[in-house]
UniProtKB/TrEMBL annotation:
UniProt lineage: Bacteria, Pseudomonadati, Bacteroidota, Cytophagia, Cytophagales
Family matches, as InterPro entries: Cbl-bd_cap (IPR003759), Cobalamin-bd_sf (IPR036724), DNA-bd_dom_put_sf (IPR009061), MerR-type_HTH_dom (IPR000551), MerR_fam (IPR047057), Meth_synthase_dom (IPR036594)
Keywords of the record: DNA-binding, Repressor, Transcription, Transcription regulation
Keyword Ligase: no
The organism of origin for this protein: Hymenobacter volaticus
Keyword DNA-binding: yes
Domain called HTH merR-type: residue spans: 1-72
Name of the protein: MerR family transcriptional regulator
């Protein structure tokens, strides 16, 4: 069970600390435990309730009315208000509350509804990614357990694979060709899966090689497939002291290909990029490149 300070709740919910204190004192929204030094500490249930309350208040509900709702009524009202809103913060708050409750049906409903209303790419960029970023903050605070994180990751992976499977096929000879892979030891796949979808929906052809690929395998892939670009995501692998060697080896194996690097390890201090490599700090930068490269289809045939 997580333990949060009031500043943690402010950061995770978007509700100012003084407002949280007022809601607590006037309406009994939360029931914190006080330490021996009289400091408030809050648990997972407090955070989940605050997220739901914030969602309803953001939709115009009066706090005095929300405070009177039971937990069941609160959850039903949150689901109902998400049916007609494009407010991304409220959607993220609802997803966080469902995750904390390990409510898989509600998570699926909220994700599916965001996709239906916004379109897949917009739902990922404006709802799923902020949701995952908030989970990262909660992980650092020790308030998300592995089961909760795995539940969300697997659901999002399912949505990405299903959306990709629905796309029309693209002929490789008529398209800009990409190889997408994760380095050996790297298992964090969501960003690469989204890149796969984003490229395909734009008409690029993708050879998706997935997780944990030994770099030496790329030579044969390049000889056979003749890609225009190679993209990888470095989140946890390779080790930080081996990133430069990995990037240099990748460039040496594929000297005439555009190398696209994404993830935290692509931005470590002192990393020197080969002349054929570029890196992206944010996903919109990659999407912009994908759009621009369509204008150069066939230039490397």
């Amino acid at each position: 069970m997580g333990q949060f300070s009031i500043s943690d709740l402010e950061q995770l919910s978007g509700i100012k600390a003084h407002t949280i204190r007022m809601w607590e004192q006037r309406y009994g929204i939360l029931q914190p435990i006080r330490t021996a030094t009289n400091i408030r500490t809050y648990c997972d249930d407090d955070l989940r309730r605050l997220l739901n309350v914030a969602t309803l208040c953001g939709q115009g509900y009066r706090i005095s009315k929300v405070a009177q709702l039971s937990e069941e009524e609160l959850c039903r009202a949150v689901i109902s208000c998400n049916e007609g809103t494009h407010d991304y913060c409220q959607r993220v708050n609802s997803l966080l509350a469902a995750m904390l409750d390990m409510n898989e049906p509600q998570l699926c409903y909220l994700l599916n509804h965001a996709i239906q209303q916004l379109g897949f790419e917009a739902a990922v960029m404006h709802v799923v990614y902020p949701f995952l970023q908030r989970i990262g903050v909660m992980w650092q605070a020790g308030s998300v357990n592995p089961a909760q994180e795995h539940l969300v990751t697997n659901l999002v992976r399912q949505k990405m694979m299903a959306a990709t499977d629905m796309l029309a096929s693209v002929q490789p000879k008529a398209a800009h060709r990409w190889v997408l892979f994760l380095p050996e030891g790297e298992m964090h796949e969501l960003a690469l899966l989204f890149m796969n979808y984003a490229l395909r929906v734009r008409g690029h052809h993708v050879l998706y090689l997935g997780q944990n690929l030994p770099i030496k395998e790329l030579q044969a892939v390049c000889d056979t497939y003749q890609p225009h670009a190679i993209c990888t995501v470095m989140t946890a692998a390779p080790d930080r002291d081996r990133v430069q060697d990995f990037v240099n080896s990748l460039s040496a194996l594929c000297p005439d290909k555009l190398l696209c690097l994404y993830g935290p390890l692509a931005h470590i201090e002192g990393l020197e990029l080969p002349g054929n490599a570029t890196r992206f700090r944010f996903m919109p930068e990659f999407l912009t490149l994908a759009d621009k490269l369509l204008l150069g289809v066939g230039s490397k045939e």
